[in-house]
Amino acid sequence: MTAQVRTGRPAPARTTNASASRAAIRPDPSLTSPQALTAARIGMLSAFGLAIVNVWFWVGFILYAPVLQAPWRGMNAYVATFVPSRYLAWAVPAFLFAPAFLTMIACLHEWANQNKRTWSLLALVFALPGATLMAALYYIQMTVVPNDLVHGVTMGFGCGSTPRPTRSPFPVR
């Protein structure tokens, strides 16, 4: 009666039945379907893959990025000391990040509750172009850039190569 006086609504009935309390905790049936469980497993594997790729990238970048090893001496010096394996040590995991991230977000969308699917769809919509651009960029950096640098071709590499992080790849005037 006191709860009704304070709030103007009747107090909720208390249940002591154990089965009634278990029914309230029951998961959404759409999350326990075989398709949702498969999406959860694949999503978890891709999340673990993302963690591994992220660690691989940072270890490779810290150990082998030339900008961290010595001061910038110019493009000719960079080409003369270029070693493709050191470059690929951080470019390959950066490329693998894109499909793993997109897979994780797609699985998250499939596994999301019905009331959260709008947000997971938005995450998928923004992840798709981001992953596409990232995969294209690092594919070019894994194939074209090392091949041309090994053969001494530097024409037009102002934006393609990343030897100097203190400078913008685009001219600022």
Question: What does this entry look like structurally?
Answer:
- With 173 residues, the chain is mainly alpha-helical.
- It has a domain at 31-150.
- 68% of the residues lie in helices and 0% in strands.
- The chain contains seven helices and no strands.
- The chain has helices at 2-7, 18-25, 34-64, 66-69, 75-80, 84-111, 117-150.
- The radius of gyration is 26 Å and the shape is elongated.
- The model is unreliable at 168-173 (pLDDT under 50).
Give the key terms.
single chain; about 170 residues; mainly alpha; 7 helices; disordered C terminus
Distance between the termini: 75 Å
Largest sheet: none
Mean residue pLDDT: 79
The rounded Rg comes to: 26 Å
Q: Helix share of residues?
A: 55-70%
Tally of strands: 0
Shape: elongated
List the uncertain runs: 168-173
Q: Which structural class matches the secondary elements?
A: mainly alpha
Order of H and E elements: HHHHHHH
Number of helices: 7
Outline the secondary-structure elements:
Layout: H1 2-7, H2 18-25, H3 34-64, H4 66-69, H5 75-80, H6 84-111, H7 117-150
Helix pairs in contact: 3-6, 6-7
Structure summarized in a few sentences:
It is built from seven helices and no strands. It has 173 residues and is an all-alpha fold. The protein has a domain at 31-150.
